[in-house]
Amino acid sequence: MSKRSHRSAPAPGAGTGAERPTVTVCRGCCCGTPKIPGLDHAAQLRDLRKALGGSATVRGTDCLGACERADVVVIRPSATGRRAGGRPVWLGLVSDRDATVDIAAWVANGGPGITDPPAVLDLYAFSPSRRVRAELDE
């Protein structure tokens, strides 16, 4: 069962029609906590926001329900990216600064549907259950 709080509201423009990609960074029960050592979690979120500035919406959220993959980051395509066939990309075990840099570079260049991700991000990609995906859309 998900430990995600149903009290968190999606960020404005975070839906499928957003004009910019949306980067959702899990900061729930496992992600973003000392349970995942060796990563400055606050710096990770701050670095993504700084690197992506006006090119993407970056938001933190409660538990995404994929705790075994902590830290989890979900990249949703922009409206243009979705029309081009882009779909949300789920990345897990993102506890390395280099991965954060690769994510930021990819999203700044357009993200899903616009540009291919760096090949190294394939190592982090996973497909969550339908239940977990549905909870993100609430």
Chain-wise SSE layout:
Layout: E1 22-26, H1 41-52, E2 57-61, E3 73-76, H2 79-83, E4 89-91, H3 97-108, E5 125-126, H4 130-137
Distance between the termini: 16 Å
Q: What kind of sheet is the major sheet?
A: 5 strands, mixed
Oligomeric category: single chain
Listing every helix as H and every strand as E from the N terminus to the C terminus, the arrangement reads: EHEEHEHEH
Approximate helicity band = 25-40%
Taken from the alpha-carbon principal axes, the silhouette is globular
Report the strand count.
5
**C-alpha Rg (nearest Å):** 14 Å
| Estimated share of beta-strand residues | 5-15%
Structural class: alpha+beta
Q: Could you list the spans in which at least 5 consecutive residues all have pLDDT below 50?
A: 1-16
- Strand ordering within the main sheet: 2-1-3-4-5
User: What is the average of the pLDDT values?
Assistant: 86
User: Count of helices?
Assistant: 4
Detailed description of the structure:
There is one protein chain. The protein has helices at residues 41-52, 79-83, 97-108, 130-137; strands spanning 22-26, 57-61, 73-76, 89-91, 125-126. It starts with 21 loop residues before the first strand and ends with a helix. Residues 1-16 have low confidence and may be disordered. A five-stranded mixed beta sheet has the order 2-1-3-4-5, covered by helices on one side. The chain is an alpha+beta fold and 138 residues long. 27% of the residues lie in helices and 14% in strands. Helix 1 (41-52) runs parallel beside helix 3.
